[in-house]
Amino acid sequence: MSAELSQESIATFQDQFARLKNEIGKQIVGYQSILEQILTAMLAGGHVLLEGVPGLGKTLMVRTISQATDLSFRRIQFTPDLMPADITGTNIIHDDEHGGRSFRFQPGPIFANLVLADEINRATPKTQSAILEAMQEQSTTVGGKTHELPRPFCVLATQNPIEMEGTYPLPEAQVDRFLFKVDVLPQGEEELLGIIDRTTTDDEIEIKPALNRDAILGMQHCVRQVMAAEFVQRYAARIVLATHANTPYAIDMTRRYIRFGVSPRGVQSVMLAGKVKALLAGRFNVSCQDVRGVVHPALRHRIIRNFEAEAEGITTNAILDRILESVPEPAAS
Length: 333
Hints:
This protein has 2 domains: 2-213, 3-Layer(aba) Sandwich (Rossmann fold); 226-326, Helicase, Ruva Protein, domain 3. Helices cover 44% and strands 17% of the residues. The chain has helices at 7-25, 32-43, 58-69, 85-88, 125-128, 132-137, 172-175, 189-199, 213-224, 230-241, 252-257, 264-280, 288-299, 307-312, 316-326, and strands at residues 48-51, 73-77, 89-95, 101-107, 114-118, 139-142, 145-148, 154-159, 180-183, 227-228, 258-260, 285-286, 304-305.
């Protein structure tokens, strides 16, 4: 497995990542860390949930990523009246030239490499569940027949954290299928000046494809070739176990504030994202530092707090901070 990964392939990965990020940066001001998190999750083969108040450029960011990657792109505006068939597609009656009739599958907008699920929490749970199978299996079943989705396949969903009226919270099973949850926060003064400069003049910004579909698939394959030593895997596992009150690694905040801890899918997300971090650092192996660097976006949405935590304003980020301080790195064997 490691024989396939060479210094040349790592350098190529770094160059492709930098070219993609620079191309997106022509349109998007600031948000360097957020862009890196989104691209990290995409290259790890996962999906991303972007949470932030309206007007921060979440939708523009996703659209720019699609332009810079030359991938097929579809935007789904989630609304209360949206139906599952509006996402997955449906079988329609087709009249042929001989007067015969048959059912033909009409693909929905989910059949794209990059799918923007805009304001995903505005649709009903029935409609939200329409993309569960797609996110996990990269296929969708309509009328008893399973249809494969194009590869690569990535769902980038946005939601507003402050508006509760007319929204439906995402089921925990669906939230868990996002590899990363990225908190999109307001920009600073210099970034706002840059936004004014780019968006209030008549200068047109042209985004050109920096990578194609085959390049993205190649980068995803490269991520899977990165090795992780047993002690690094053990470190990631202990961090996840520290979110469960009935394990030896649980801390006081876990026992007091967490109702349900992180699922096994969480440790998978940490390790895959850590492999991307290792490649960007020019290494063949994942380090404990790589693991720590992805813990917050990979695990923050998988922790279910209890009432006491919500009443006292204890965030999952604060709990993860304390866990990282408390869980020591295992000794290298």
